[in-house]
Amino acid sequence: MSMDDKLESCFTKETTAANFRSSTDRTGAGLPPKTSLESPGPAYYNLSRQQRGRCIIFNVQKFSTSENLTDRSGAEVDAFRITNTFRKLGFKCQLVPNPTTRKVRETLQEVSNETKDDADCFVCFFLSHGKLGRIFSSDDDLTFRQLIDPVVRSKSLRNKPKLFFIQACQDYDGTDYKDAPDGWSYSIPSYPDVFVGFSTPPGYYSWRNEEGGSYYISALCSVLDEEASSDNRRDLVSLMGVVNRQLGLGFEC
Length: 253
Hints:
Layout: H1 3-10, H2 13-17, E1 51-59, H3 75-88, E2 92-97, H4 101-113, E3 119-131, E4 134-136, E5 141-143, H5 144-152, E6 162-170, E7 194-198, E8 208-209, E9 213-214, H6 215-228, H7 236-252
Parallel strand pairs: 1-2, 1-3, 3-6, 6-7
Antiparallel strand pairs: 3-4, 4-5, 8-9
Helix pairs in contact: 3-6, 4-5, 6-7
Region (Disordered): 21-41
Protein name: Putative caspase
Protein backbone atom coordinates (compact mmCIF):
# COMPACT_ATOMS: atom_id res chain seq x y z
CA MET A 1 0.00 0.00 0.00
CA SER A 2 1.37 3.41 -0.94
CA MET A 3 1.72 6.31 1.51
CA ASP A 4 -1.11 8.08 -0.34
CA ASP A 5 -3.38 5.07 0.21
CA LYS A 6 -2.56 5.03 3.91
CA LEU A 7 -3.27 8.73 4.29
CA GLU A 8 -6.48 8.48 2.31
CA SER A 9 -7.68 5.66 4.53
CA CYS A 10 -7.40 7.95 7.56
CA PHE A 11 -9.61 10.71 6.23
CA THR A 12 -13.11 9.34 5.80
CA LYS A 13 -16.09 11.58 5.21
CA GLU A 14 -17.75 10.10 8.28
CA THR A 15 -14.71 10.93 10.40
CA THR A 16 -14.64 14.66 9.84
CA ALA A 17 -18.25 15.46 9.08
CA ALA A 18 -18.94 15.34 12.82
CA ASN A 19 -17.07 17.25 15.47
CA PHE A 20 -14.94 14.79 17.42
CA ARG A 21 -14.87 16.36 20.86
CA SER A 22 -12.16 14.38 22.60
CA SER A 23 -9.79 11.51 22.10
CA THR A 24 -9.47 10.71 25.78
CA ASP A 25 -13.06 10.30 26.93
CA ARG A 26 -13.41 6.65 27.94
CA THR A 27 -17.15 6.99 28.48
CA GLY A 28 -17.83 7.18 24.74
CA ALA A 29 -18.87 10.83 24.85
CA GLY A 30 -15.95 11.66 22.60
CA LEU A 31 -17.28 9.60 19.71
CA PRO A 32 -18.97 11.49 16.89
CA PRO A 33 -22.76 11.36 16.96
CA LYS A 34 -24.55 9.39 14.28
CA THR A 35 -25.21 11.81 11.46
CA SER A 36 -26.39 11.50 7.89
CA LEU A 37 -24.47 13.31 5.20
CA GLU A 38 -26.33 15.98 3.29
CA SER A 39 -25.54 14.28 0.00
CA PRO A 40 -24.04 10.91 -0.94
CA GLY A 41 -20.39 10.89 -1.86
CA PRO A 42 -17.24 8.79 -1.78
CA ALA A 43 -16.37 7.14 1.51
CA TYR A 44 -12.93 8.71 1.50
CA TYR A 45 -11.50 12.12 0.76
CA ASN A 46 -9.45 12.37 -2.39
CA LEU A 47 -5.79 12.86 -1.44
CA SER A 48 -4.22 12.96 -4.89
CA ARG A 49 -3.36 16.63 -5.30
CA GLN A 50 0.11 18.01 -5.82
CA GLN A 51 0.61 18.99 -2.17
CA ARG A 52 -0.36 17.08 0.95
CA GLY A 53 -1.05 20.33 2.78
CA ARG A 54 0.11 22.56 5.61
CA CYS A 55 0.59 21.60 9.23
CA ILE A 56 0.75 24.71 11.40
CA ILE A 57 2.05 24.29 14.95
CA PHE A 58 1.37 27.10 17.40
CA ASN A 59 3.64 26.39 20.36
CA VAL A 60 3.20 28.84 23.24
CA GLN A 61 5.77 28.44 26.00
CA LYS A 62 6.11 31.94 27.44
CA PHE A 63 3.33 34.30 28.45
CA SER A 64 2.91 38.01 29.13
CA THR A 65 -0.79 38.00 30.00
CA SER A 66 -2.47 39.19 33.20
CA GLU A 67 -3.21 35.56 34.14
CA ASN A 68 0.23 34.92 35.68
CA LEU A 69 0.67 31.79 33.58
CA THR A 70 3.74 29.63 34.09
CA ASP A 71 6.18 28.87 31.28
CA ARG A 72 5.53 25.57 29.52
CA SER A 73 8.95 23.96 29.83
CA GLY A 74 9.38 20.89 27.63
CA ALA A 75 6.76 21.91 25.06
CA GLU A 76 9.46 22.01 22.39
CA VAL A 77 9.51 18.20 22.60
CA ASP A 78 5.90 18.12 21.42
CA ALA A 79 6.63 20.51 18.53
CA PHE A 80 9.57 18.36 17.43
CA ARG A 81 7.49 15.17 17.52
CA ILE A 82 4.65 16.71 15.53
CA THR A 83 7.03 18.12 12.92
CA ASN A 84 8.83 14.81 12.53
CA THR A 85 5.61 12.80 12.19
CA PHE A 86 3.80 15.08 9.77
CA ARG A 87 6.81 15.73 7.56
CA LYS A 88 7.06 11.98 7.05
CA LEU A 89 3.40 12.04 6.05
CA GLY A 90 4.17 14.62 3.38
CA PHE A 91 2.98 17.80 5.10
CA LYS A 92 4.73 21.15 4.96
CA CYS A 93 5.17 22.01 8.63
CA GLN A 94 5.24 25.58 9.92
CA LEU A 95 6.26 26.14 13.54
CA VAL A 96 5.00 29.39 15.07
CA PRO A 97 6.74 29.82 18.46
CA ASN A 98 5.15 31.98 21.18
CA PRO A 99 2.66 33.69 18.86
CA THR A 100 0.66 36.70 19.96
CA THR A 101 -3.07 36.70 19.29
CA ARG A 102 -2.42 38.98 16.34
CA LYS A 103 0.14 36.54 14.92
CA VAL A 104 -2.28 33.63 15.30
CA ARG A 105 -5.00 35.52 13.46
CA GLU A 106 -2.64 36.67 10.71
CA THR A 107 -1.33 33.14 10.18
CA LEU A 108 -4.81 31.64 9.94
CA GLN A 109 -5.98 34.48 7.70
CA GLU A 110 -3.18 33.58 5.30
CA VAL A 111 -4.66 30.09 5.17
CA SER A 112 -8.11 31.53 4.55
CA ASN A 113 -6.83 33.76 1.74
CA GLU A 114 -4.92 31.00 -0.06
CA THR A 115 -6.18 30.65 -3.63
CA LYS A 116 -4.18 27.66 -4.87
CA ASP A 117 -6.23 24.48 -4.91
CA ASP A 118 -3.25 22.11 -4.84
CA ALA A 119 -3.41 20.83 -1.23
CA ASP A 120 -5.27 17.77 0.05
CA CYS A 121 -6.03 18.96 3.58
CA PHE A 122 -5.02 21.18 6.50
CA VAL A 123 -3.72 20.39 9.98
CA CYS A 124 -3.30 22.74 12.96
CA PHE A 125 -1.87 22.08 16.41
CA PHE A 126 -2.20 24.53 19.29
CA LEU A 127 0.02 23.81 22.31
CA SER A 128 -0.60 26.10 25.26
CA HIS A 129 -2.50 26.80 28.49
CA GLY A 130 -6.23 27.26 28.43
CA LYS A 131 -9.28 28.14 30.50
CA LEU A 132 -13.05 27.75 30.06
CA GLY A 133 -13.12 27.01 26.36
CA ARG A 134 -10.21 29.33 25.59
CA ILE A 135 -6.57 28.86 24.81
CA PHE A 136 -3.82 31.36 25.44
CA SER A 137 -1.52 33.03 22.97
CA SER A 138 1.58 34.64 24.43
CA ASP A 139 -0.28 37.88 25.19
CA ASP A 140 -4.01 37.09 25.31
CA ASP A 141 -6.55 34.31 24.86
CA LEU A 142 -8.65 33.00 21.97
CA THR A 143 -11.76 30.89 21.64
CA PHE A 144 -11.66 27.65 19.69
CA ARG A 145 -14.03 29.22 17.19
CA GLN A 146 -11.49 31.96 16.48
CA LEU A 147 -9.06 29.22 15.46
CA ILE A 148 -11.45 27.29 13.27
CA ASP A 149 -13.56 29.96 11.55
CA PRO A 150 -10.85 31.43 9.27
CA VAL A 151 -9.88 27.99 7.99
CA VAL A 152 -13.49 26.97 7.39
CA ARG A 153 -13.94 30.10 5.26
CA SER A 154 -11.04 29.13 3.00
CA LYS A 155 -12.30 28.47 -0.53
CA SER A 156 -9.22 26.41 -1.37
CA LEU A 157 -9.99 24.04 1.54
CA ARG A 158 -13.69 23.62 0.78
CA ASN A 159 -14.79 19.95 0.99
CA LYS A 160 -11.34 18.99 2.29
CA PRO A 161 -10.47 17.62 5.74
CA LYS A 162 -9.41 20.26 8.25
CA LEU A 163 -7.87 18.82 11.42
CA PHE A 164 -7.28 20.66 14.69
CA PHE A 165 -5.49 19.19 17.70
CA ILE A 166 -5.59 21.08 21.00
CA GLN A 167 -3.02 20.31 23.68
CA ALA A 168 -3.76 22.63 26.58
CA CYS A 169 -3.58 22.07 30.29
CA GLN A 170 -6.56 23.86 31.81
CA ASP A 171 -8.29 24.52 35.05
CA TYR A 172 -10.97 27.00 35.99
CA ASP A 173 -8.67 29.64 37.45
CA GLY A 174 -6.18 29.50 34.60
CA THR A 175 -3.38 27.96 36.67
CA ASP A 176 -1.33 25.26 34.99
CA TYR A 177 0.43 22.45 36.81
CA LYS A 178 3.29 20.41 35.41
CA ASP A 179 2.51 16.70 35.81
CA ALA A 180 -0.76 17.61 37.51
CA PRO A 181 -4.46 17.43 36.56
CA ASP A 182 -6.70 20.16 35.31
CA GLY A 183 -10.19 20.48 33.85
CA TRP A 184 -11.76 21.38 30.52
CA SER A 185 -14.74 23.37 29.49
CA TYR A 186 -15.41 24.31 25.92
CA SER A 187 -18.11 25.13 23.44
CA ILE A 188 -17.62 25.00 19.69
CA PRO A 189 -20.14 24.70 16.88
CA SER A 190 -20.21 21.85 14.37
CA TYR A 191 -18.50 22.41 11.05
CA PRO A 192 -18.46 20.28 7.89
CA ASP A 193 -15.18 18.51 7.10
CA VAL A 194 -13.66 19.53 10.45
CA PHE A 195 -12.09 17.25 13.05
CA VAL A 196 -11.19 18.61 16.49
CA GLY A 197 -9.13 16.47 18.85
CA PHE A 198 -8.59 17.50 22.47
CA SER A 199 -6.00 16.23 24.90
CA THR A 200 -8.74 15.74 27.51
CA PRO A 201 -12.54 16.05 27.83
CA PRO A 202 -14.40 18.26 30.33
CA GLY A 203 -13.92 17.16 33.91
CA TYR A 204 -10.89 15.01 33.10
CA TYR A 205 -7.19 15.70 33.39
CA SER A 206 -4.43 16.54 30.93
CA TRP A 207 -0.80 15.75 31.68
CA ARG A 208 2.56 17.12 30.59
CA ASN A 209 6.11 16.21 31.53
CA GLU A 210 8.93 18.75 31.31
CA GLU A 211 11.38 16.28 29.78
CA GLY A 212 9.11 14.00 27.78
CA GLY A 213 6.46 16.47 26.63
CA SER A 214 2.72 15.84 26.79
CA TYR A 215 1.36 12.30 26.96
CA TYR A 216 -1.34 13.09 24.39
CA ILE A 217 1.04 14.34 21.68
CA SER A 218 3.45 11.49 22.36
CA ALA A 219 0.68 8.90 21.98
CA LEU A 220 -0.83 10.61 18.94
CA CYS A 221 2.45 10.80 17.03
CA SER A 222 3.35 7.24 18.00
CA VAL A 223 0.05 5.92 16.63
CA LEU A 224 0.34 7.90 13.38
CA ASP A 225 3.95 6.77 12.89
CA GLU A 226 2.93 3.15 13.33
CA GLU A 227 -0.06 3.51 11.01
CA ALA A 228 2.09 5.02 8.26
CA SER A 229 4.30 1.92 8.22
CA SER A 230 1.46 -0.64 8.31
CA ASP A 231 -0.96 -2.02 5.74
CA ASN A 232 -4.04 -1.44 7.90
CA ARG A 233 -6.76 0.87 6.63
CA ARG A 234 -8.19 2.66 9.64
CA ASP A 235 -10.06 5.95 9.78
CA LEU A 236 -9.04 8.83 12.00
CA VAL A 237 -11.63 8.16 14.71
CA SER A 238 -10.38 4.57 14.98
CA LEU A 239 -6.83 5.83 15.34
CA MET A 240 -7.92 8.23 18.07
CA GLY A 241 -9.44 5.25 19.82
CA VAL A 242 -5.99 3.67 19.82
CA VAL A 243 -4.54 6.89 21.25
CA ASN A 244 -7.21 6.78 23.94
CA ARG A 245 -6.32 3.21 24.87
CA GLN A 246 -2.62 4.02 25.02
CA LEU A 247 -3.27 6.92 27.38
CA GLY A 248 -5.58 4.77 29.50
CA LEU A 249 -3.04 1.98 29.79
CA GLY A 250 -0.34 4.48 30.67
CA PHE A 251 -2.34 5.85 33.59
CA GLU A 252 -3.23 2.37 34.82
CA CYS A 253 0.40 1.32 35.10
